[in-house]
Specification:
The chain is mostly helical. Helices cover about 75% and strands about 0% of the residues. It has 14 helices and no strands.
Length: about 300
């Protein structure tokens, strides 16, 4: 039982990491007034790009950087349509969710062909392995038996919290999501901040997707993002649009994801699909309980037209 709990805690930390990247991506987007439900698609293209670059170069870190760049490039479609053309954000977010995974699947089949051979790439090493530490102590495993990307995820939470709460730039950023016309009268470049939000959102989404194929799994398969983009949307609402709240939400959903995997390993009687439902059922329950009681940035989802100031 002790081993089960220990492994569950360690797995929860790892499983929460891609959710943190994706949730922060959505947080930055919504704080600038942009509701981007295309996180799932951006993560998919980031996952494929990260896998290919890691496979070709043998360097998972380059794969992560390439995944971030791919996420930014695809998200520029959403940015141009919703910011420059003032198009409906939900519609184009869903378009990204359709387009990006299909593009990733197409690129994979063009590169590898239609054969069934499972192609694998190397994974990013853990800090414990890099330091040559052999101990199996729980706290050493918790803090050191993680890839650098796990540390980056938690550091970004702290940086984001400081940025929004303690810096003038962060306050200007939030003002764009609350009342963009008033922000513009104060000399804040609303359009530039919205485009910056899309760059940050695309990069973090791509990193979250690339994490899955450079730190978690050795291969890319269609659907490997597995709804994490939508769970990230729920995590932002659960966390009340604050970095600390988002971290707690991601740890909760990461725990649910780790739990379903562990239960599959110890139970041979129930169908594995029953356990796979746990993270998604938890998402629905959370949204049902608190979704209607919370409100994000006031201008979130609303188009901004400069000429209407």
């Amino acid at each position: 039982m002790g081993s089960f709990i220990t492994n569950l805690i360690l797995a929860s930390v790892r499983m929460a990491s891609p959710l943190i990247f994706l949730s922060l991506a959505e947080l930055y987007s919504q704080r600038a007034g942009l509701v981007n439900i295309g996180i799932e698609g951006l993560a998919a293209i980031g996952s494929l790009t990260g896998f290919l670059v890691s496979l070709i170069t043998g360097n998972p870190l380059l794969g992560v950087l390439a995944g971030a760049l791919a996420g930014v490039c695809v998200n520029m479609i959403f940015a141009y349509a919703t910011i420059s053309l003032s198009a409906e954000q939900i519609v184009y977010g869903m378009a990204i969710n359709i387009f990006a995974p299909a593009l990733a699947a197409f690129i994979y089949r063009v590169y590898f062909g239609s054969g069934s051979e499972l192609v694998q790439a190397g994974l990013m090493g853990t800090v414990k392995g890099m330091l040559g530490i052999k101990s199996d102590n729980f706290f050493i495993n918790l803090f050191l038996d993680q890839t650098p990307m796990v540390y980056l995820a938690y550091i970004l939470v702290i940086v984001t919290a400081i940025f929004f709460a303690r810096t003038k730039s962060g306050l200007n950023y939030k003002a764009v999501g609350e009342y963009p016309k008033a922000a513009a009268t104060l000399g804040i470049n609303v359009i530039r901040i919205k485009y910056l939000a899309c760059v940050i959102c695309g990069a973090l989404s791509g990193i979250g997707g690339a994490y899955l194929t450079t730190c978690y799994s050795r291969t890319y398969v269609d659907g490997n993002v597995a709804g994490r983009g939508f769970i990230a949307l729920a995590a932002v609402i659960f966390g009340r649009w604050s970095p600390g709240g988002v971290l707690i939400a991601c740890l909760f959903f990461g725990f649910c994801d780790a739990l379903q995997i562990r239960l599959q390993l110890v139970n041979n009687t129930l169908p594995y699909q029953f356990f796979q439902m746990i993270p998604y059922v938890a998402t629905v329950v959370v949204l049902t309980i608190i979704g209607a009681k919370q409100a994000g940035p006031k201008a979130s989802g609303q188009p901004y037209r400069k000429e209407e100031q």
